Amino acid sequence: xxxxxxxxLFAISILLVLSVVVGCSSSIKSxxxxxxxPTSDAAIPQEAPAEAAEDRDSSFGxxxxxxxxxxxxxxxxxxSFETTEFDKTNEELSKLIEKYxxxxxxxxxxxxxxxxxxxxxxxxxxxxxxxxxxTSFKTELNVIGNLTSESTNKQDVTKQYxxxxxxxxxxxxxxxxxxxxxxxxxxxxxxxxxxxxxSEVIYEKENLKASLLTLDDxxxxxxxxxxxxxxxxxxxxxxxxxxxxxxxxxxxxxSLYFFTDTLQGLIIALIxxxxxxxxxxxxxxxxxxxxxxxxxxxxx
Length: 300
What we know:
The protein is α+β, with helices and mostly antiparallel strands and about 300 residues long. It has 7 helices and 5 strands, in the order ααβαββαβααβα. It has helices spanning about 1-35, 50-60, 85-100, 135-140, 160-185, 190-220, 245-300; strands at about 75-85, 105-115, 120-130, 145-155, 220-230.
């Protein structure tokens, strides 16, 4: 019994010692953490300068959808429109392109594009717009027609751009060293070897510079691909917020349109079939007269 009591007392004493040690160590850590806090003005993080704040605001205003979005982004937008006034739509589009300092990279207008069994005009445009104007340009495009589809693609080329810059710096350093060696070279074979290496370095340097220029152009100027379809009647757009009265109004308008369109189609079809109907009528008339005469002669 006495031995067991001694063991219990020994275990309790060990637990007390461990608790004291843990408590002391935690207090020491907390004092160290407090004591290690920066007290000098140089160590305390200051507010960002006004210029940096302005840079962030300007980058956000350049068509960037999120302040967390990387700087090196290639933006491509795809839009499709319907219009009943094709010429007016083209005029409005040209005004917007001029207003926001863009330019048309590619355009194609088809005058025999068939839509709903009718021939209409169809336009394809690839437009480059400065990155800082892309949001405003896209917002004002609703005046050119009825938007039917929209998609946006953003490609992050930050790593590609950084890697290309790094490679360019290495190549430029190598070029400087080769030039220095070329100035000191005296043997013809050394000079020829250095010149060959130098030409390869210069060729690679120009390719890297061209790649950076291409990336800069794609980053600074967003691409907007627009398709414009001429139609007789634009598609009525309805969503969950559309009121019942608007739905009834759209249904009546669609019903009248399809009725008149079908009636016009029947009239035009009759006009096309008129010569054949005349010939068929003449053949039927002659056939009836011949049959009646034949029947009359047979009875006599």
